[in-house]
Amino acid sequence: MSKLTQRQLKAQETKEKLLEAGLKLFHEKGFDHVTVDSIAKACKVSKGAFYTHFNSKYDIFLEKFKDIDAFYSSFVPTIPKEISASEKILLFYKGQLTYLRDDLGKDLIRTVYTSALSLTMTDNHYLSSPERNLYKIILSFVEEGVQAGEFKKAVTAKYISMLVTRCMRGTIYDWIIFGDRLDPVEEIEKITSTLLDGLKRET
To answer: What predicted TM-score, i.e. pTM, was given to this entire model?
Structure first.
């Protein structure tokens, strides 16, 4: 793989600065009160420089979600193949919430989620899009469990996947609300295992 040129490195550095400045301003002022001009000004670059890297301020947090989803994809190969689908889901969620808690932090997650939620939710909204790696990963685990006869036949893989992803989103939401009074890693394990136990086929 060829090394980046000085110009490419500078462009990458500018993009990172714009991303960090945008998230910081969203946290301080709220998504609706931040403009592209203010983000560019905070980085001491032109408005044109902003549009070289992002199409709009919406793309600031969209980029962060893509970074987060890239981590999720990289985590999947660490999950043992021989364990049950339920165990895979629990390990994945514990890894996800550990990453959000320890690497990104509650303040950043609050900023990213509140910024996303301030926009009109449509079928194409990144938070709810079934094309997100996060949702594809969970669906693949659930489908594996359905095929293995681990879950009740009366419930579809798509519906089970929707239920367990709501556990995840609800845990993140509660973590944002309750802060240090709630450990998201412990909570995701308890709530998701309770749900999965209720969905398992009786033997």
So the answer is: 0.78
Tokens of 160: 């089970």
Overall CATH class of domain 1-56 = mainly alpha
Q: What is the DSSP string of 114-158?
A: HHHHTSPP-TT-TTT-TTSHHHHHHHHHHHHHHHTT-B-TTS-HH
> Could you give the CA distance from residue 13 to residue 108 in angstroms, rounded to a whole number?
20
- Indicate the residue type of 66: K
pLDDT band at 123 (very low <50, low <70, confident <90, very high): low
CATH code assigned to 58-199: 1.10.357.10
Report the largest interatomic distance among the alpha carbons of the chain, rounded to a whole angstrom: 65
Residue spans of the domains in the chain: they are 1-56, 58-199
